[in-house]
Every structure is written in C-alpha cells, then in structure tokens.
Write a structure and sequence with these properties.
Layout: H1 39-42, H2 63-75, E1 79-83, H3 90-101, E2 106-111, H4 115-128, H5 133-140, H6 146-155, E3 161-166, E4 185-191, H7 197-201, E5 205-208, H8 214-224, H9 231-240, H10 245-256, H11 265-272, H12 277-281, H13 294-307, H14 312-321, E6 328-329, H15 335-338, H16 351-360, E7 365-370, E8 377-382, H17 385-393, H18 400-417, H19 421-436, H20 442-457, H21 461-477, H22 484-499, H23 503-519, H24 525-541, H25 545-563, H26 568-583, H27 587-600, H28 609-630, H29 646-653, H30 659-677, H31 682-698, H32 701-718, H33 724-740, H34 743-761, H35 766-779
Parallel strand pairs: 1-4, 1-5, 2-3, 3-4
Antiparallel strand pairs: 6-8, 7-8
Length: about 775
C-alpha cells in the first residue's frame, strides 16, 4: 500500500476495516451493542412542527416587527435575525411567523441550540426537500459536505419555504456554511447574540426583540390570568416585573393555575419580595425547560460566555448588581477606576472583555444619556432589573463583603472626586442603592452627605430628601444614632423634610433631634440651638408661633453666648422672630425687631453672613408689607391676614410707612437674593412673591402678575405643584387675576389652589384661608 493511500478508509455503523502497512500486526476486535442513536444519526422527529412551547396568549405589541417579517415572508427570500435579552419572546415571534407561513409555503423548524442538533435538524430539512436516503447517509457519514447538500435541496425546492433556526445562541456552527441566503425561501434565526460574523456574512437583517411597553405588558397578564383583578394592580405587577415577557408569562401562569390558594394580583405582588425568581419559577409548567424558567434562562447565556473564555462576564454582572437599576455610567467601570479597588474575580484589564461578552449576549445594553458637559452625551450600561435581582441573590455569601466594598468604593470615588457633575448625578441612584442594601461604610455616608448638601444648597429639597433619610437610617441601624455627627444628620433630615413641604413629618424628626442634642449639650451646645431653630420653623408653619418664639429665644441665648450678638447664626434667630411676630398679629413688635435687624446687618460676620443678610432684608420688607396692609382698609389682602391686637394697630399707625417704601424694600430684598442664591432658587422665589404683593399695592399690576407667575414656575420646578408655598403663590395669582377681571383664568386656578390647600394643609391654615378668599373673588 502506498503512503498516500494509507489509512484513508473509514467504518460506519457496525462495519469492519482491516488495514496493514509493512510489518504491523493486526488484531481484530468485535464490539456488540446497539447502533448509534445520537441526534446526528437519527435526527429530529419532525421539522414540520415548531419545537417550542405553544403560545399561552396572543402576542402583544410587536406589530411593526410582525408586519416587517410578514413582508419578508411575502418577498420570499432573505435572512432575518431576532436577537435580544433572554426571555423577551424571540421564539414566540418566530412561532407566530411559523404559524402564519402555512399554507402558502412550507414551514421548517430546526433547533440550533447545539451543533449536533443543528446538524441533525438541517439534514432532516434536506430529506424533507427531496434528498435521497443515500445522500443524507453520505452527509451523516462525512462522505459528502452536509451543509452543501442541505442548501442544494433548499435552493431547488419546488415550494417556497420558511426556515426557522431557533435558539442559535452560539452562532459559531452557523459560520461553517449552515446559514445561507436562498432565492427560494426566508430564513429566520433567533439568538441572544446581537453581533456575530455569521450575521454579517449573509447580510442578515437584524431585529431587536425587547421588553413590552407597559400597557401591552399589563394586557398580557390579563390575557394569561383573566379574572376580577384590579387594573391598577395588574399595571403595578407588570412594571415590577420590568415588562419582561417570560416573567409576565410565569406570573400569569401561576395566577391562573392555582388549585389550593387563590391569590389576587396584590397578594402576588406582596409575596414577590426582594428576590422574586423563586416565586416566578413556580409559574412554569412541569415539563418546562431551562429557557422557560427565569432562574435558568439567563444562566444559559453566562455559561456560554464562560465556555468561550469570558468568566469575567459574571464578575462584571455581579458588580453591576450591587448598584441600582438605573443606568451606570461607563466611567464607573473604567479600568483606571477598577484598579483602585479589589473586585472578586475581576481584573481591571479584563473588565472590557467581560462587558463586551455581556453586550454580545444581550445581557446588558449601551445607551447614551444627554446632559454632559458642553452638551455631550454620557455613555451608560443598562441591565434589566430582574436580571440584577437574580444575580444579586446568587452572589456567594463569602464574596458579599468584598464585592459590596468594591462597589461602594467606586461609587464614593465618583461622587467625592469625580470631575463631571453630570456623571456624578448619574451615579447618585447607585449610592442610594448601596445604602438601601445596608452598605454604610464611612466613605459611602460621606458621599451621601455631599449629595444631600449639594441639593439642599440648590433648594432642591425633594432630591436631597432620600439621601438625608438614608444616611439617618444607616446610622440608626449601626446603633450610632446618638453620636454628635449622627444628631447633625437627623437635624438635616428634619430641615430638608420641612423644606420639601412635609411640615407634619418634619416635626417628630426634629423633636427627636432636639432631645438627642440636649443630651449632648455639654459636648456640642450649638447642635441644640440648630435643632431649636429648625423645630421653630415647623411650629411657625403650623400656626404655633408662640412656641416657635420660645425655641428661638433659647437658640438665640446659646448662639449669642458662644458666637456673639453679631454672628450671622445669632442674628438668624432674630430674623425668624420677626416672621413669627407678624404671623401672630404683633405688627408693631415685628417692625421694631425689623429695625433692630437693619442696625445689625452692616456688622454681621460668620460664614452665612450674606445668606442671613438677604433673609433679614426679606423679613423686614414682609413685616412692612403686613403692617401697611393693616393700615389700608381697601387692601384686598386685609381680610386674609391675621387680625392685629388693638395696641398693635396703634404701634403700626405710629410707623412712617408708605407703599413706595414697602416697594423699595421688597426690591432691595429680591436683589440681595438674586446675588446670593441666583435668580431661580426657591429662596429667591420667596423674595419674588413678596415683591409681587408689594407691586400690586404699589399699583403695578403687570409686574405683580409677572412675578407671581415666575414664582410659581420656580417653586413647581424645585418643590412641586402641591408644595404649600407653590399653592400659596397660586392663590395670590388667582386673586390678582380675579381683581383685574380675568375670571376665566382665575376661577380654575383658585379652585385648584383651594382644593389642594384644603387637602394638604386643612381648613384653618392661613394659606387655605387666602385661597378661599381668592376663590370667592374669582366667583364674583
């Protein structure tokens, strides 16, 4: 036998071959057993039946995609790839198109989840399209190119066809010639891989299959579990599940198949808890495969990535799971940042490979969010919330401290040392998530305080509030609630709660802070004064002005003793007394205190001198406005302010007041606020409100209405439409419009302001009384 011809023979099935060369001894072995029954040898039972679970309900949404696929089917050629996140319904769309194909064309279905199943299925397709048993046998035995045989038969098929290659999550086998374009039919592939040479090689048309819109998701739940469920609860459940089709299907399946219990949607929602996966999996059928269980569907992709040499993908996902569901700026994952920490299982130089693997498997997405410096867009990573919860629940207990420590260090670094404020703001939700997960390392708390103070200084109380609350909660869980720094954090929480408009909610917080500060009076006496000042503000807003003044006297004594009479913090207590005195109807007293403030302002010192000066100018102008209204019987505001005592009327009468002077002081106060706080700060809005009132009485109605409108705009943007201060400005604007004869605009504005004030503040609150007066004026 020649060297070239040696050892070329092959045996198939139970055949025998004898070969020899030179002096080699041959020993014959006999093996008795069943013939090869692997998938590649026997093939699937059918390629004319969709090898997927039947649709449990009609497809929701996807109208545009379905129309496009139907059009492609009608055109009769082309390769289309449905790609996306596991469980989002790629196979369901393919199954729908498969059902639509008959009777106009042959519909063929191949399971492409493994190379052997793909090969066996495609050879069965060849047989279906007319290949002889001998041709198929030769392809099975390697004596003929299998892929060429399949596509030869498809290309000459007498009937047009649709070929579905389902679950091609590893497209590498398809690159060996199994995926081609043909003039006789349409190919539809489902895969989690968004990018692969297999797709580009055939110029495949890519179609992203994502989660459902909220309305369609809620409708799908209703389709799967019809019954007397509250629509609002169904919508909440759909949103809680992130509108993820598989999760919705599992939840609907569970609710519709209960035998021993009959949970409502609300009860199901309550029992989902922080780790919903176990409950969701109970909605799978008894014979459901891994792809039909939430606990396994994503793990399949991660296992495939690990087999491709990307175990870092899981480490990246675990790091992302430590944070919130909000987009994560890629700067947070930069190798330069990751090198500063120790992330279990993740080297800084491999993080990009891991992230690219997750992107290719559709486990994460890249998006760009506007708002960066100079109008640039900020690139972020997004992950479905249920996937994050699933991964977080599966983190080994021994890795949690190190993993969460690394996540905390990266977030804190971005907040405390990040140069781009826009990127820092995108990191803030992840800071909150760490605090909610009981990660209360000092650097995390410091970062949360930084965010709280930034928002508080900008007048954005609603944004500051969650950080203030989480800092206090974290400290209380750590049993350090009575520490001096912790007491200051409680005072800050009370102040921000009050500024956000929740006067009733702020009071118990500040009472607790005052008790804790009093207990620490020897160690930190100024804390006690701070708590008194903030609690006085709550009392003043609830018409308990006498109590407020007593607290201010107490705070003033402490600050004067420790800081001196002209320190800004000491003078602040006098500023607040002016406010409370005229709210009690003591207009003469308030004017005398205002004059005292005027004398002190030039000598103020301390870090907050400019701020307190602006406040002193504003309360002095407001006191003058209130007193002048008392002296002006025809003023439209007279009936809605506190009636003064008889001796207070006499005191007011003795003052040298005029609307010209009131206007001048109000304008000076606004100018000071604009300089210190900026034109659109909520505290500047208070000065605008005061100027608007003075402008009306001064005879400049257009100026008054313009300032009221701007005040409402600023307060709505920073505090919300239902904040008491926004409602108060709305009531005043409605009153002015009514007095000017613009009842068409005034009437609905007054009605809304009065209804909001009545609901939020109660019938006796001064703001409610003023809104009632506006409503009456608008109805005349």
């Amino acid at each position: 036998m020649s060297e070239d011809a040696s050892l070329r023979a092959a045996a198939y099935g139970q055949g025998r071959i004898f070969q020899s060369e030179r002096d080699i001894q041959i020993t014959e072995h006999h093996h008795h057993g069943a013939p090869d029954t692997s998938a590649s040898a026997i093939g699937p039972a059918s390629v004319r039946v969709a090898l997927s679970a039947p649709l449990r309900a009609a497809l929701r949404d996807r109208e545009e995609l379905r129309e496009e696929l139907l059009a492609a089917l009608g055109a009769g050629s082309g390769v289309h790839v449905l790609h996306g996140f596991g469980g989002c319904g790629k196979t369901a769309v393919a199954r729908w198109l498969f059902d639509q194909a008959a009777p106009s064309r042959v519909a063929l279905w191949v399971d492409a989840s493994t190379e052997s199943q793909l090969r066996a299925g495609m050879l069965a397709v060849a047989a279906d399209r007319g290949a002889s048993p001998e041709e198929v046998r030769a392809a099975q035995e390697g004596r003929r190119a299998a892929a060429d045989l399949v596509w030869q038969r498809l290309d000459v098929s007498a009937e047009p066809w649709l070929l579905v290659l389902d679950n091609a999550d590893d497209p590498r086998p398809l690159r060996d010639g199994w995926l081609r374009d043909s003039p006789r039919g349409t190919v539809l592939v489902t895969s989690r891989q968004a990018v692969d040479p297999a797709w580009t090689g055939v110029r495949a048309r890519m179609h992203r299959v994502d989660v459902l819109p909220a309305l369609e998701a809620a409708q799908l739940l209703h389709d799967l579990a019809p019954g007397d469920h509250q629509p609002e609860a169904t919508m909440r459940l759909a949103q809680r599940l992130g509108c993820h089709p598989l999760a919705l299907t599992l939840a609907g399946g569970f609710l519709s198949q209960q035998l021993l219990e009959n949970w409502t949607v609300e009860e199901y929602l309550e029992r989902l808890g922080a780790d919903p996966v176990a409950l969701l999996d109970r909605g799978a059928g008894l014979e459901s495969g891994a792809r039909e269980r939430l606990s396994r569907t994503w793990q399949l992709s991660l296992d495939a990535l690990a087999q491709r040499g990307l175990p870092e993908a899981m480490a990246v996902l675990r790091l992302l799971a430590c944070w919130g569901h909000a987009p994560v700026p890629v700067a947070l994952l930069a190798p330069s940042a990751v090198r500063t920490v120790e992330v279990p299982g993740l080297a800084a130089e491999r993080i990009e490979a891991g992230l690219n693997g997750l992107l290719s498997a559709s486990l994460v997405d890249l998006i760009e969010i506007p708002g960066g410096v100079g109008g640039r867009r900020i690139r972020c990573v997004t992950v479905h919330g249920l996937l994050l919860e699933t991964i977080a629940a599966g983190v080994p207990e021994e890795q949690r401290p190190e993993l969460y420590g690394a996540a905390a260090a990266l977030v804190s670094r971005a907040v405390l040392h990040g140069g781009d404020a826009s990127t820092a703001r995108l990191v803030e939700p992840h800071l909150l998530a760490l605090l909610e997960n009981n990660v209360s390392a000092s650097r995390v708390l410091d970062a949360a305080r930084r965010v709280r103070e930034t928002y508080d200084a900008a007048g954005r109380s609603a944004d500051a509030l969650p950080f203030a609350a989480e800092v206090v909660r974290a400290l209380s869980k750590g049993k350090v609630a009575e520490d001096v720094v912790a007491v200051a954090d409680v005072i800050a929480l009370g102040e921000i709660t009050h500024m956000s408009g929740d006067f009733a909610g702020a009071e118990p917080v500040l009472k607790r802070a005052l008790d804790a500060a009093t207990a620490r009076a020897e160690e930190a006496p100024l804390l006690q004064a701070d708590a008194c000042v903030q609690l006085s503000l709550c009392y003043g807003k609830s018409d308990r002005n006498a109590e407020a003044i007593r607290l201010l006297h107490r705070a003033g004594e402490i600050r004067q003793r420790l800081l001196g009479p002209t320190h800004a913090d000491t003078v602040e207590t006098l500023v607040l007394q002016v406010d409370n005195q005229y709210l009690m109807g003591n207009y003469g007293v308030s004017l005398r205190l205002a004059q005292q403030l005027t004398n002190l302002v030039p000598n103020l010192h301390g870090e907050r001198s400019d701020e307190v000066t602006a406040s002193a100018l504003l309360v002095s102008a407001a006191a003058m406005w209130q007193a002048q209204v008392v002296r002006t019987p025809e003023s439209p505001w007279r009936a809605s302010i506190t009636a003064p005592k008889a001796n207070a009327v006499a005191d007011v009468g003795a003052q040298a007041l005029s609307w010209d002077l009131v206007w001048e002081r109000a304008q000076t106060a606004l100018d000071a606020h604009v300089v210190h706080f900026g034109p659109d700060h909520p505290r500047t809005a208070a000065a605008r409100h005061n100027l608007a009132l003075a402008a009306w009485e001064h005879g400049d109605q257009e100026k008054a209405i313009a300032e009221f409108r701007r005040t409402i705009d600023i307060r709505t943007a920073h505090l919300g439409a239902e904040h008491p201060w926004t409602i108060g400005a709305s009531g005043h604007l409605a009153h002015c419009l009514a007095l000017r004869g613009d009842t068409e605009e005034a009437s609905p504005l007054a009605d809304r302001a009065y209804a909001d004030a009545l609901r939020i503040l109660g019938p006796k609150h001064p703001t409610t009384v003023r809104c009632a007066a506006a409503q009456k004026a608008a109805s005349l």
